[in-house]
Each structure stands twice: as C-alpha cells, then as structure tokens.
Amino acid sequence: MDETARQATRQWTLAQPAVSAFVTSMVRDFGDRDDVLQEVAVAVIESYDSYDPELPFVPWAIGVARNQVNLYMRNRRKDLLVFDDDAIACLAVAIPTVAQQDSAKLDFVTECLGGLENRARRLFELRYQKNMKPAAIAERVDMSANSVAKALQRIRDRVRNCVERKSVEAMS
C-alpha cells in the first residue's frame, strides 16, 4: 500500500463515525444505509487525490457522502419520505460540528476520570474496563452489591457533571 492510500485510510477511519451518522440521518433502510456507506468509502478513497489537506477532512468526506446520498435519493424518488436537497445540505453542515463536539466531550471524559480518587477509579475500572457486575465487584472490594451500585451511580453523576461543566466552559 502506498503512502497516499495509507493516509486516505487513516483519514477515513477517523471520519467514518461522522460520515456514518450523516448517512444514517438520510437513509432509513439498514441494508441501503450499509450500501451507501460502502459506496461513500470507495468514493472517498478513489477521490482522495482531490482532497486539499489544508482543509478539514470530515466536511470533505461528508461532501462526498452527500453526493452518494443524492445519487441514492434520485434512485429512490418513489419513496414518500425522502429528504429534499435543503435538508441534506443542513445535515451536511451540522454533522461535522456535532462530531467535533462529541470528540471534545470524549476528551473531557478522560480528564474527568483522571480526577477520580483511588477508590472511585478502582470501582469504575472494575465495572467499565473489566466489565464486572456490582455483585462481583462487591466481593472483590469488600462492599455490599447495593453499596457498589450506589457508589457507581455517584461516580457516573460526578463524571457527567464534570463533562457538562467542562463543555460549558469550552463554549465560553
């Protein structure tokens, strides 16, 4: 694989969730959605040479997806619930913004988890990294299952509040 193909693949991998969200918002049928997304992936890789690396990749990839969705819509005009061009254009602009906000929130989650004290971090790791149920955690940390469940709820609330606070601060 040459370096251009490697770079295109890396960029596509990062952009794929946002592009998938865009396609999902436009195409109702699961099978059709997968087909359109596959066509978008092929089109992105094939037209990567026309991408200007000075510009953000996700909006460019969504532009490619927009063309593929329009092609799909033209072929599906008989469906009654089809988005018009203005709706597609609005979503093409909105999805990259939402994806960027979600990416920032993930960074905030990492920061907020880093701020947990040792006991809370341990409970969180056992539950969400080791996928243990509260009863199994309770045995390991010498607590009741009910106490573990309540502690996990408080931890989730603290992390959620921390992320929301950081999101508001970032917008200011």
UniProtKB/TrEMBL annotation:
<keyword id="KW-0731">Sigma factor</keyword>
<dbReference type="InterPro" id="IPR036388">
    <property type="entry name" value="WH-like_DNA-bd_sf"/>
</dbReference>
<dbReference type="InterPro" id="IPR039425">
    <property type="entry name" value="RNA_pol_sigma-70-like"/>
</dbReference>
<dbReference type="Pfam" id="PF04542">
    <property type="entry name" value="Sigma70_r2"/>
</dbReference>
<dbReference type="GO" id="GO:0006352">
    <property type="term" value="P:DNA-templated transcription initiation"/>
</dbReference>
<feature type="domain" description="RNA polymerase sigma-70 region 2">
    <location>
        <begin position="16"/>
        <end position="77"/>
    </location>
</feature>
<dbReference type="InterPro" id="IPR014284">
    <property type="entry name" value="RNA_pol_sigma-70_dom"/>
</dbReference>
<dbReference type="InterPro" id="IPR013325">
    <property type="entry name" value="RNA_pol_sigma_r2"/>
</dbReference>
<keyword id="KW-0805">Transcription regulation</keyword>
<dbReference type="InterPro" id="IPR014331">
    <property type="entry name" value="RNA_pol_sigma70_ECF_RHOBA"/>
</dbReference>
<dbReference type="GO" id="GO:0003677">
    <property type="term" value="F:DNA binding"/>
</dbReference>
<dbReference type="GO" id="GO:0016987">
    <property type="term" value="F:sigma factor activity"/>
</dbReference>
<dbReference type="InterPro" id="IPR007627">
    <property type="entry name" value="RNA_pol_sigma70_r2"/>
</dbReference>
<dbReference type="Pfam" id="PF08281">
    <property type="entry name" value="Sigma70_r4_2"/>
</dbReference>
<protein>
    <submittedName>
        <fullName>Probable RNA polymerase sigma factor rfaY</fullName>
    </submittedName>
</protein>
<feature type="domain" description="RNA polymerase sigma factor 70 region 4 type 2">
    <location>
        <begin position="110"/>
        <end position="158"/>
    </location>
</feature>
<dbReference type="GO" id="GO:0006355">
    <property type="term" value="P:regulation of DNA-templated transcription"/>
</dbReference>
<comment type="similarity">
    <text>Belongs to the sigma-70 factor family. ECF subfamily.</text>
</comment>
<dbReference type="InterPro" id="IPR013324">
    <property type="entry name" value="RNA_pol_sigma_r3/r4-like"/>
</dbReference>
<dbReference type="InterPro" id="IPR013249">
    <property type="entry name" value="RNA_pol_sigma70_r4_t2"/>
</dbReference>
<keyword id="KW-0804">Transcription</keyword>
